Amino acid sequence: MHRSRFLFPVLAFGALALYPLAGGGFGIDLVTKIMVYAIFALSLELLAGTTGLVSFGHAAFFGIGAYAAVMLSPQSGPASALWLAPACMLAAAGYALAVGALSLRTKGVYFIMVTLAFAQMAYYVVHDTPFGGGTDGIYLTLKPTLAGLDLDQALLLYGFTLGCLMLVFALLALLLRSTFGRALAGIRVNEQRMRATGFSTYPYKLAAFVLSGAIAGLAGFLFAVKDGFVNPEMMGWHLSGAVLIMIILGGLGHLEGALIGAFAFALLQELFKSEAVFGAFAKHWQLGLGLAIIACVALLPRGLIGVPELLRERLVGRRNGARAAAEVQHELA
């Protein structure tokens, strides 16, 4: 199991690195978008899957990162991604610090509702005021550069996004194996027991919340660079719900599950939108997507990452059943 967990990211990132050799323009753009969603899903996985804090307002940090990318870009010339991306992460982390400092004093459904309320506040700031361009949004006229190369080039942006995804995955994998990560896991399992052993859990949860917001801000920055446009919908509750579905679909509590869930969600979305496959029903793609997700969650309680283990258990169960039946027949004979 441990070997397969080590092999999975190596194979997955290797396949993503080789994909541009075979994929066309549409495919490269689609996979770039999915990798951005995967970074977004990893940020929520740290909070919900590792720490047990289910946020329903995570899109606010994604949107702040995206808006910061547009607003901080100078009009006189393209900005360097080497300072713009950290600035966007810092903006999202700053809002996460304010939201986390207050919302982490609540628990359970109250925490969910408070995070949703803060996200809606950010949504209405950019939706109902000229600050963020209102409902029309704002355009990123000059896309940032990386080492003098324009990120407007699809292949360069693909490679940059893949590099960011690999760095985020490696960072979180190392973090989860550290003392900090083990403390977060302990908080998820039994926070009262952690307090009884001397851990002050609040700083750990706040640090995880801020780090999660910063990573979501990075995803927002990449999304703004890819599309060259931001609007209030990037902070909407439906996007917070979508990223929550991604990590549940892939398998809550696993970094690999966040990657699988992001790809599965986006590919299912594209499948049900396809008129070539579903004809006129493609206009109602949300219905098909919803039914598919309900079926996956009902049939796969451990998510898509649990499929190999589920198949193994059923195979072993059948073998044991057949062996027991053979022994009974042998005794009767």
Task: Characterise the protein shown here.
The protein is mainly α and 333 residues long. The chain has 14 helices and 4 strands. The chain has helices spanning 2-18, 25-50, 59-71, 81-103, 108-127, 154-176, 179-189, 191-196, 201-227, 237-250, 255-273, 275-278, 285-299, 307-332, and strands at residues 138-139, 145-146, 149-150, 229-230. A two-stranded antiparallel ribbon has the order 1-4. It is globular, with a radius of gyration of 22 Å. The model has no long low-confidence stretch (mean pLDDT 90).
Order of helices and strands: HHHHHEEEHHHHEHHHHH
Principal-axis shape equals: globular
Helix content: over 70%
Task: Average the pLDDT over all residues and give the rounded result.
Answer: 90
User: What oligomeric state do these chains adopt?
Assistant: single chain
Q: In terms of per-residue confidence, which ranges show pLDDT below 50 for 5 or more consecutive residues?
A: none
Gyration radius, in Å: 22 Å
Q: How many beta-strand elements?
A: 4
Structural class: mainly alpha
Number of H- or I-type helical stretches: 14
Q: Beta-strand percentage?
A: under 5%
**Within the largest sheet, what's the order of strands?**
1-4
